[in-house]
């Protein structure tokens, strides 16, 4: 990993620090000799801090943009006045259509739903960036009041939740079918800055599909470690098709997670599982993009599925930064929804976060089947500072909610449906009010898992190819 | 089907005519009594003609836009001068970000990759439109020369094709994972105009998934007829999940196609298979969008998979209209690629289109496994007027090309890979030149079919959860 010592690489890395979320120790983003660091000496997870955004105007940036950026200080001391300038910058980029001018090899970074917000994601020279582009996922209005004409089927979701003004942001519309692409474009870009030849992760499936795809695009080798028998078929097929070396571990996700850390340290492979602090920075873009789609009018609640707690941490951090920069005028409350069989965060929440819990995870929602979440401390901070809540829902509640989302014509993978199941419960309990403005996150596409919660194909019996046979079916 | 007789409905329908592609007979778009017509009395397929676009300024259109539209006459007599005005209109809409203003139920039509071009698709009052939105699919630069930094893995595709300046447009990035959503948003909108309560299609899978999703959104019943055992698992799962009544026919696609026509006529269900003339109008948007993404600089070649020939017809029609309106300065040549086991169009082409051929279709590429294509006559016109070609590729060539696309990190369903297999063959034969500017269409996402052409998961053997076991795997 040598490129980090070239001038561009080291310039980037010098402006970034890594802060331990447990003991607050501060580290350079890269150690002497170009070695990346993933954990604090105390074992804690590390969070990215930018020392000064102003040092990194985008390549080719106008004087105007440089002025905007010079008004933004390090995260610890964000200047509220920068908000309107940044909003103008981001809104201007959102009007850029994805046009390839003749023979040019431009990157369309403004069109990426991640790199559009690059000053708040990773200030890196453009030539290092590995982007499909990604993001630009739909925000579907599905509430009883806001679903509009042409979406009367979608209104069933709002009815089920009991919410008048509900939006669902469908992260399954990313290139590989899940939100993971947002973190991966940043993680693989960082691997590229470091000159890495290979990247690896442990995953419940979506991360490995995304890693395999972005590693292939960048010409790097990909290694993915999956818990055997616990990965939906679509996700496994993606990792294999994109050409990653796919190793099924005879153990659960937490065992795979532990192993990949050892393997990366031993073999000098860049680690891209959720320990990687830069992936969280990319996932923040879910938060920025949904705020922009709401014209920077923050919702009252953000509801999302919670497994390893990376998304809770990332979207919470995005909201915090947007609030500090005055991009929004209040912090949305965050509701993290866990499967009842994989609920360590819920257990901790019920005790007022007195201690971190671990469980042996069991749920049909494989994407959140995690017993020992890596981002516990970060996510706890998010719940505390947004006056948030953690809820649990049973597999039966997840499957019932999935049927509602599927039958509306939108569809999602099982873990995503925890969002709807959880918001229904919180509305019933009076925590979320019927007229609150609520955004829910769907994390993956229906096609990621075409078995769990899909009606059996036996309901579509083969009939003879004549009209009488069809008539008798339709009469049933 | 009563709404057609309301003032809005009848106004729309009066400006549209249906022209038989075989005998050129002209019909109103709707018969007396509100009955839709799908075929000419001679049995021929019908094509939509707009009598005058100027009668339908978008709701709330400015004087300026009305003036643009009044300059555009019926398709038979398109006014070239309208091109620059239309380009300004479409380019202006392409800069509209998908922002939901507070509490508004706007439709974001300008953000749809279909309805952005609505004057050339279906002039219909906004309140009838059923849109996700759809389209806005990526155009990936993957040629040896134009793939740019950050895409060195994608360059393998250009190397395999032997092309310097190649783009792949990935229609698998539509909401239900295939290009079919572009035709379906228009078809279901037309069903809505007609006040239909139920819609039906026969399908190799992608159409049924799309119909099921859009019917659900619109609150209509969906019926899909599938050839039993010939539909990829992802597509079948989608139809079932979205709640369509799914009937597997003990016969091939052509038998299912025949049956659904009878059923719709008998039961008054609106027919949305490829006979439906309005779906083709929506699919034209693939052509308009790729031209816009290339800044209206038409490519030399457009290469696409060919089964039922709807896409060849639709994209050809889009190019013809864009050329007649001076949106582009030359017509791209079109290369339609068939599977060798399902090659009736190729057989006709080799005889100079002396006669229409039928075959018993056999190919692993289920999406183009069609022996008797509905849009033969329209597609023949496209190949003839663009100086195009029809090529065939074996299943082995399709699978080899799919591996290249998958391993690059982009991925696609088997039928899509016919595009790359075909262009490689045409470059080898010298029909397409190495330095031609070429666009290829990928029709569906990798996740539509996670079995065909995916490396067996046996290559990812489960190993014990310890570092020694992993080390031994990595050493292999």
What would the keywords be for this entry?
alpha/beta; globular; 476 residues; disordered N terminus; homodimer; six-stranded mixed sheet; 14% strand; 36% helix
Number of strands of chain A: 14
How large is the count of helical segments of chain A?
A: 15
Q: Which term fits the overall shape of chain A?
A: globular
Question: What number is the mean pLDDT of chain A?
Answer: 88
Q: Strands of the biggest beta sheet of chain A: in what spatial order?
A: 4-5-13-10-11-12
The class by helix and strand makeup of chain A works out as: alpha/beta
Distance between termini of chain A?
A: 65 Å
Low-confidence stretches of chain A: 1-5, 54-62, 73-77
**SSE topology string of chain A:** HEEEHHEHEHEHEHEHEHEHEHHEHHEEH
Oligomer: homodimer
Which pair of chains has the greatest number of interface residues, and how are they split between the two chains?
Answer: A-B, 114 and 114 residues
**What percentage of residues of chain A falls in helices of 4 or more residues?**
25-40%
Q: What is the rounded Rg of chain A?
A: 22 Å
Strand content of chain A: 5-15%
Q: Which sheet architecture does the biggest sheet of chain A show?
A: 6 strands, mixed
């Amino acid at each position: 990993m040598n490129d980090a010592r070239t001038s561009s690489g080291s310039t980037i890395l010098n402006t970034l620090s890594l802060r331990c979320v447990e003991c607050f120790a501060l580290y350079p983003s890269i150690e002497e000799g170009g070695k990346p660091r993933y954990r604090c000496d105390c074992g804690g997870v590390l969070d990215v801090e930018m020392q000064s955004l102003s040092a990194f105007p985008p390549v080719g940036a106008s004087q105007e943009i440089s002025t905007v950026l010079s008004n933004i200080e390090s995260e610890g001391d964000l200047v509220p006045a920068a908000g309107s300038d940044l909003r103008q910058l981001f809104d201007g980029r959102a009007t850029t259509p994805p046009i390839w001018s003749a023979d040019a090899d431009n990157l369309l970074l403004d069109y990426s739903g991640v790199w559009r917000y690059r000053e708040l994601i990773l200030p890196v020279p453009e030539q290092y960036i590995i982007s499909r582009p990604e993001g630009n996922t739909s925000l579907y209005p599905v509430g009883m009041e806001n679903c509009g004409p042409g979406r009367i089927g979608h209104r069933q979701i709002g009815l089920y939740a009991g919410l008048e003004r509900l939006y669902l942001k469908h992260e399954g519309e990313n290139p590989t079918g899940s939100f993971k692409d947002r973190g991966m474009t940043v993680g693989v870009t960082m691997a590229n800055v470091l000159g890495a030849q290979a990247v690896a992760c442990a995953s419940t499936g979506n991360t490995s599909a995304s890693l395999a795809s972005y590693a292939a695009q960048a010409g790097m080798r990909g290694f993915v470690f999956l818990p055997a028998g616990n990965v939906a078929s679509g996700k496994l097929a993606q990792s294999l098709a994109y050409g990653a070396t796919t190793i099924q571990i005879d153990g659960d996700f937490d065992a795979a997670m532990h192993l990949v850390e050892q393997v990366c340290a031993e073999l000098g492979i860049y680690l891209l599982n959720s320990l990687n602090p830069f992936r969280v920075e990319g996932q923040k873009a879910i938060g920025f993009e949904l705020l922009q789609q709401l014209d920077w009018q923050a919702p009252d609640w953000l509801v999302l599925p919670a497994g390893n707690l990376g998304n809770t941490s990332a979207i919470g951090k995005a909201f915090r930064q947007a609030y500090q920069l005055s991009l929004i005028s209040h912090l949305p409350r965050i509701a993290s929804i866990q499967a009842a069989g994989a609920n360590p965060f819920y257990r901790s929440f019920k005790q007022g976060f007195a201690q971190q819990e671990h469980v042996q995870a069991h749920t049909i929602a494989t994407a959140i089947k995690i017993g020992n979440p890596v981002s516990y401390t970060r996510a706890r901070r998010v719940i505390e500072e947004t006056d948030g809540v953690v809820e649990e829902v049973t597999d039966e509640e997840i499957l019932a909610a999935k049927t509602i989302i599927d039958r509306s014509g939108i569809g999602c993978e099982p873990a995503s449906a925890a969002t709807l199941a959880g918001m229904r419960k919180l509305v019933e309990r009076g925590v979320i009010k019927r007229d609150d403005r609520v955004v829910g996150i769907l994390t993956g596409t229906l096609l990621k898992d075409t078995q769990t919660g899909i009606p059996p194909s036996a309901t579509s019996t083969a009939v003879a190819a004549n009209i009488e046979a069809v008539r008798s079916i339709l009469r049933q």
